[in-house]
């Protein structure tokens, strides 16, 4: 049993297709299929059932999937520990941030990492939330702090905090009161949005679409 076989098996299970897994692993399909066949022969059980609609994990395969993930995590842990014995070799960590988060967290984040992990070189990158998710999925970035990143099979996300969105208007405008603003009233407002692809505009569109109301954007 080889590490490469475990990685291939886990990738096939996560993508649900040998074709997609072969592309993700940059390997031809026959070679990938041979890896799995060899693994099944060594273990003496069928791990995957091949069909026209992709692959289905067998009960034995489902059990082995959990064990394979654990083994790969153990291997990664061993490699990380061994690298700590090379004091002159610096590890690199690339962290993606939105512009708003970067202005608040970048300095403290870099300082804390430098104090806790002196052998790690941190590189901070600013981008929009949806692009940060894509860059992590493509392994261009290691991790990212972003807003409402779309679900992706190659990503794992965890909510860290909730942030309020405020409606800002001139005191002289019809909205310049302390009274709550109704969604119907928002449909009469004209918005100035920093970007048409940012998370704020996406949240606004979702909220307005929920009530079947238009969103008027001037800039």
Automatic annotation (TrEMBL):
Coiled coil: none annotated. It comes from the Bacteria. One of its GO terms (cellular component) is protein-DNA complex. Gene3D superfamilies: 3.40.190.290, Winged helix-like DNA-binding domain superfamily/Winged helix DNA-binding domain (1.10.10.10). Residues 1-58 form the HTH lysR-type domain. Keywords: DNA-binding, Transcription, Transcription regulation. GO terms for molecular function: DNA binding; DNA-binding transcription factor activity. It holds the Pfam family LysR_substrate. SUPFAM superfamilies: Periplasmic binding protein-like II, Winged helix' DNA-binding domain. Transcriptional regulator of the ttuABCDE tartrate utilization operon. Belongs to the LysR transcriptional regulatory family. This is HTH-type transcriptional regulator TtuA. The lineage of its organism: Bacteria, Pseudomonadati, Pseudomonadota, Alphaproteobacteria, Hyphomicrobiales.
């Amino acid at each position: 049993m080889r590490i490469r076989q475990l990685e291939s098996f886990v990738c096939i299970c996560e993508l649900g297709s040998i074709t997609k897994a072969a592309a993700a692993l940059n390997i031809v399909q026959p070679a990938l299929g041979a890896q799995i066949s060899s693994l099944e022969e060594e273990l003496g059980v069928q791990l995957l059932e091949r069909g026209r609609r992709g692959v289905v994990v067998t009960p034995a395969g489902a059990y082995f999937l959990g064990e394979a993930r654990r083994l790969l995590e153990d291997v990664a842990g061993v490699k990380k520990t061994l690298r700590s014995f090379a004091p002159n070799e610096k590890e690199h960590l690339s962290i993606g941030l939105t512009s708003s988060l970067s202005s608040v967290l970048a300095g403290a984040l870099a300082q804390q990492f430098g104090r806790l992990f002196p052998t790690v070189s941190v590189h901070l990158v600013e981008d929009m939330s949806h692009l940060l998710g894509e860059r992590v999925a493509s392994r261009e970035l290691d991790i990212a702090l972003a807003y409402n990143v779309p679900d992706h099979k190659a990503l794992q996300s965890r909510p860290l905090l909730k942030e309020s969105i405020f409606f800002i208007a001139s005191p002289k405008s019809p909205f310049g009161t302390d009274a709550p603003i109704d969604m119907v009233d928002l449909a009469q407002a004209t918005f100035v949005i920093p970007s048409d692809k940012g998370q704020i505009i996406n949240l606004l569109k979702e909220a307005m679409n929920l009530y079947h109301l238009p969103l008027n954007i001037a800039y």
